[in-house]
Amino acid sequence: MYDDLKGRRVIVTGGASGIGEATVRRFLAEGCSVAVFDKDENGLKRLASENPGIELVFPGDVSEPDDVERVFEEIDRLLGGLDILVSNAGISIRKPFTEISQEQWQKVTGVNLGGMFLFAKAAVRRMKKQKYGVILMTASTNGMEAHPLYADYNASKAGVILLTKTLALEFAPEIRVNSVSPGYVLTPMQKAEYTEEMLEEVNSKIPLKRHATPEEIASVFAFLASSQASYITGANIPIDGGETAGIV
């Protein structure tokens, strides 16, 4: 636990399930004031009922500027500003490159990269005024090395990594900006795309022989948001059980 996180104002996008939900729970445990943004209204209702300490749940699409503007207006009204952005929302569609439509390409990149842009821009405007802030983005090992059948996803996550580094340079020293690149994480999105046999095959190729848990990713977000990481900015941190270390 990190004492300096107590009372910090946090928003987590894609917070109604998976990595996002685990991150919401972790920042609540740290004593933060937490807002959650997600397109899944039922998921938000469940999360709020299970975690009454959440300050705000807001249904919306990270790729829609009007939704982003409205949630920040609510954050200003309820919390008086923002200290930490965890920009986590993302989507993935498994398809061969030649079968990816223009509509799918725009949807995936619009959420995975466009959403990061919109939320970071709104957060930076507020953080610059207070001369403090932390922006954290969920990238992926897919943005570090190619994976077949995920051309749009791979490209969007590579963009997140470079967006992170660019913002870190532009807004230092007041605002720190970092990304994390999870490898295989056992989330609802992963379970929807992979059969049990596929999961077992993947695990056999990971040095630690298993998927990460969402809580393990959330713990890195908490560390990066804390003063313990005060000299870390512009970094992309793989959390992948050794997957990108080399060939096993």
Molecular structure report:
This protein is of the alpha/beta class. The protein contains 8 helices and 7 strands, in the order βαβαβαβαβαβαααβ. Strand 5, helix 5 (151-171) and strand 6 (175-182) form a beta-alpha-beta unit. The protein is globular and about 45 Å long. The model has no long low-confidence stretch (mean pLDDT 97).
Strand and helix layout:
Layout: E1 9-13, H1 18-29, E2 33-38, H2 41-50, E3 56-59, H3 65-79, E4 84-87, H4 102-130, E5 133-138, H5 151-171, E6 175-182, H6 188-193, H7 196-205, H8 214-225, E7 236-239
Helix pairs in contact: 1-8, 3-4, 4-5
The gyration radius over C-alpha positions equals 17 Å
Q: Separation of termini?
A: 34 Å
Reading the helices and strands in chain order gives: EHEHEHEHEHEHHHE
DSSP, total strands? 7
Q: What is the strand arrangement across the widest sheet?
A: 3-2-1-4-5-6-7
Main sheet properties: 7 strands, parallel
Beta-strand residue fraction = 5-15%
Helix content: 40-55%
Q: Please give the count of helices.
A: 8
Structural class: alpha/beta
